[in-house]
């Protein structure tokens, strides 16, 4: 979208900070803006091309290009993410990338557009089990449950994000997962 000038540059110039060099705060690192990151001019020196994305996602390059062009040339475009993309390790980066699409295309604040966030669900009530005091203070993120089952005692705070101790010193014997299939459904081997 950037290389084909499918971004809404006037919108970015007027409403956004940090998209490119001219909107980057003075104290920000050189090439610390979003455009440099995407083009591979930032710290990681990796261009986020359709070929790069295809290797990660398995989605064909031509399909990625077609979708990018469709998003970049459609206005208004209601871009909304579901609750699945962020339910994985580093999934917040996927959520941020999706949220950037309406910003890049100037679809924020217009009729028929969106901010990239999930549509409003504040009126939906979610039943919950009563919260009890848990004497165990060691914890791990839900995305690492399968790793904990496989090699829990080798997991550390630094490498695996164990909280409350330097390492997970006991194996996982039981997981109570109430009304939440994200971990199960994201690991097809569990379903067999």
Automatic annotation (TrEMBL):
Transmembrane segments: none annotated. Its EC number is 1.8.99.-. It comes from the Bacteria. One of its GO terms (molecular function) is molybdenum ion binding. One of its GO terms (cellular component) is outer membrane-bounded periplasmic space. Residues 69-123 form the Molybdopterin oxidoreductase domain. InterPro entries: Mopterin_OxRdtase (IPR006656), Prok_Mopterin_Oxidored (IPR050612). It is an enzyme of class 1 (oxidoreductase). It comes from Shigella flexneri K-227. This is Putative dimethyl sulfoxide reductase chain ynfE domain protein. Pfam families: Molybdopterin (PF00384). Gene3D superfamilies: Dimethylsulfoxide Reductase, domain 2. GO terms for biological process: anaerobic respiration. Keywords: Oxidoreductase.
